Amino acid sequence: MSKTNWLATALVALLALAAGPAATQEFGKAVMTGGPTGTYIQIGRDMARLLAGCGQTLEVIESAGSLENFVAVRQRRNTQFGIVQNDVLEYLKTYSADDPAVARAIYGVRIAFPLYDEEVHLLARSDINSLADLAGKRVAIGVENSGTFLTASLVLDLTGTEPAERRLIAPADALPALKAGQIDAFFYVAGAPTALFAEGGIDGEQFHLVPITDETLQSVYDTATIPANTYPFQPEAVSGIAVKALLMTFEYDMDGNSYQRQSCKAVSDLSNLILTRLTELQQTGHPKWKNVDLQDIPAGWDIGNCVNEGLRPDYQLECTAPLATAAPEQAEEPGESDANRAYREYICATIGC
């Protein structure tokens, strides 16, 4: 696991570069997502449509991915939301215990909602049939500050796989590089189906998704299956692993200055809409909304207070949306923080448990 200390270094370096805009900037709301062909950006657009129905604007920002999104939520002005992988959160929490710089970097970041599982895609030449076959090959692992970069690096390190080259190439650029014979395989962490593979014109005779069945990885990550025919080139189911995507926010002070109050309200409004209109998202949004489990809070992280404010049955959303009616309270679960216990009560009161 010592090979993974680059994460702490990368986070501190990213924080040093991420100076926020001037305090006089006009107030706005934004969610940090990912690349233009990924699932994050489609999820962000679905959330923006919810707010648009209430006359509010949410800017959907492309990014390198999870680590950049985490840092943006922490200190980028007018950026109240970011979608982040749970393995990023796990390793940040691990390093924060021994590294004061990392502890400062994660201070104040909270969960808004757990979202869905993201499958780890490994697209490769047809003669590569396992992680072990990547030894001596040219493998694209995503760009720095992306979740794909983190997960791919961990997968290779944990399994002791040694490619000849680990190339820092974004998935959208890695696909044409693979087709041109410039690399042999590439990783992409994204909720299936992802547009890059669904619309990428991939020849199933030349390329395929490689199963990821290593026992060490299955003890660290959730197991997953990409069903047959998820993509045009993929006639059979593919076994693998997955990470959880989460919508993150910051712990704004609802009694603080104007920016803090407005940001807290923005978090509360979107939280209210996601909860009360989850069925609408599942029917009209990206297919991954159907896999969202709002109860699946990862250990070690708390729900934001502004989130819980928006989930209260008596919350007044400035919108024509009907307010949810309360249901009987659930018995509290032992060992949970007050914030997470309140979150579960509001979820159960609205959509049941």
UniProtKB/TrEMBL annotation:
Keyword Transport included in the entry's annotation: no
Signal peptide feature range: 1-24
Top-rank lineage group of the source organism: Bacteria
SUPFAM superfamilies referenced in this protein's UniProt entry, alphabetically: Periplasmic binding protein-like II
This protein's UniProt keywords: Signal
Pfam families linked: NMT1_3 (PF16868)
Protein name from the UniProt record: TAXI family TRAP transporter solute-binding subunit
Organismal lineage: Bacteria, Pseudomonadati, Pseudomonadota, Alphaproteobacteria, Rhodobacterales
